[in-house]
Amino acid sequence: ITDEQDALRDAVTRFLEKASSAEAVREAEPLGWDPKVWEGLTGIGVPTLGVPEDQGGSGASLRDLAVVAEACGARLAPAPVVETMVAARLLAEVAGSSERAAAVLNALAEGGAPVALALHPAVNGVCRLVPGAAVSAAVVALDGDDLVLIELADQLTSPTNLGSAPLADVSLSGDHGSRTVLASGAEATAAHARAVDVWRALTARWMVGLAREAQAIGIQYATDRKQFGAAIGSFQAVQHRFADLATDLDGADLLSNKAVWALDVADPVAATFPTMAFWFAGDTAQRLASWSLHVHGGYGFMEEYDIQLYFRRAKAARLVLGDPRRELQSLAGRLWDDPSTTAIPATASSLESPEDDGGFDFRLGPDVESFRTEVRAFLAEHVTEEVIETAYTTGTIHDSGLHQKMAAAGWISAGWPAEFGGQGRSPLEMNALTEEMYLSGAPVDGLGVASLVAHTLLIDGTDWQKRTIIPEILAGQAMCCLGYSEPDAGSDVASVVTKAVQDGDEWTITGQKMFTTMAHEAKYVFLLTRTNTEVAKHKGLTMFVIPMDHAGISFTPVHTMGGERTNITYYDDVKVDDKYRVGEVDGGWKVMMTALVF
């Protein structure tokens, strides 16, 4: 975000830290409305932030509005901020042709009451549970094909609800106040649909703010709370759940930012991002608040603890638009179904199905499908029942005959540039190749490991390794295996102790590796060793690519529950020339990170 957006976020956050404390949020219940908070936000210019300057606003971008929404979510600001910012933008669209819309915007800019947006069209003349309507001066709604402005004469009654939100039913007949038609027909329905998508995207940012604060509350409690003589945050079951949720929250953050970006992009796929973001951010916020409450134990349910405020609002905010599963159904419709049920324009260019049967065509294109057909025919001929049965019987999910035939067809190196003897196939074509190999049941586990090693050598290997080993791999002449795991170094691979000691241009390697699949078929082992014990463990590693026929290398088969064969490999004073070292001495961690990319 820009420096100006940083400053905006800081200004809103500083104000809300004082005005919207947890105590203030409680005092604003059950209506979820604090006039002092609204007055302060109005003073900063928040309600009309997205309104053009010539209409009394700040002319801010949607990204600016998103920054405000996130800050309000983090502090559970007791005011319909998102709803008003969205409604104000919508009114600004039609204010040029409506004196009443201009008057409402003017009142809002001068510190007036909020304005609400009815998210769903009216049914029998009534919009149900409109967010923010119970404290608003006006509501913008869709009544059939008419976009209408209802200026409320009296404050509406809000039913008690889980999220302490100022919801209210709004009659569009004029019973609650004056009624003005702002637009009609396709223009009206399109404007309303755009506004609801803006609401989805900004509410997703609001929920990201809520989720981050709920996460912080939960982590702080897990750090402070002691059970069995230790902080509960030190227990793996607690740590792992927080880690999973932190990852989801980062995903929600990225997706909701993308949704805000998408609203300014004329692209039919981008048009689906607000729906995706609203669902995923809401789901993540609810799960994160729920877990943080769970970590509190029974205390989380007590009103004295703040986490219940976040839990209730996270759960309730998703429901304002209805059952969240409907959002997924809507998304499926926009991507796959009859275009008459979607808001996506019929001119979806290359994404349209050639049969014009609605939705998008997610096939990979004629060139890729032509290659797929070629691959499928090859595999149908060469992946015989005998080949598959042999793989199951031996547990070796590799067939050297099939491998050689694939090499002869050029498919082992198909994705490599021509200068390496490859075909320069695109990533999408290689994706089709991979899909067809696995769908056919082809035993090609060895191919994946060999490709990983070859790609890593291309980036981190020496010129000799690139000239000698890569061509052997791509020609199908050399298989590879990975020497990473050890008896006491599984997922903590930086704890390896297999030792490599240098003496001039020669190394002596001693140790043991577990789960060395393909070791009995491989020409090379990609071996991670310990070369320095005086530094942090991940800084003292060195990688080698070593021929398996070196004296001192042996292996023992290990047969697994699924029928696959792997191996334990032993390295007993194995003498290795320095030319087989990959990357810098003590630089093995970097080489392994390269390999992990592939």
Topology at a glance:
Elements (H helix, E strand, L loop, with lengths): L2 H17 L2 H6 L7 H10 L17 H14 L5 H14 L4 H11 L5 E3 L8 E5 L7 E6 L2 E7 L15 E4 L5 E8 H40 L1 E2 L2 E2 L4 H27 L10 H23 L11 H13 L4 H13 L29 H17 L2 H10 L5 H9 L18 H14 L4 H16 L2 H12 L5 E4 L15 E5 L2 E8 L10 E7 L10 E7 L5 E7 L5 E13 L3 E2 L5 H10 L1
Parallel strand pairs: 1-3, 9-12
Antiparallel strand pairs: 2-5, 3-4, 4-6, 7-8, 10-11, 11-15, 12-13, 13-16, 14-15
Helix pairs in contact: 1-3, 1-4, 4-7, 5-6, 5-7, 7-8, 7-9, 7-10, 8-9, 9-10, 9-11, 12-15, 16-17, 16-18
What is the compact description of this entry?
It is built from 18 helices and 16 strands. The chain is α+β, with helices and mostly antiparallel strands.
Annotation keywords:
598 residues, alpha+beta, four-stranded mixed beta sheet
What would you note in describing this structure?
The protein has 18 helices and 16 strands. It is α+β, with helices and mostly antiparallel strands and 598 residues long. The protein is elongated.
Helix count from the secondary structure assignment:
18
Major beta sheet, strand line-up: 1-3-4-6
* pLDDT averaged residue by residue: 92
Helix fraction bin: 40-55%
Radius of gyration: 31 Å
Question: Largest sheet, described in full?
Answer: 4 strands, mixed
Shape: elongated
Strand content: 15-25%
Distance between the termini: 31 Å
Number of strands: 16
| Spans of at least 5 consecutive residues with low confidence | 338-357
Structural class, by secondary structure, is alpha+beta
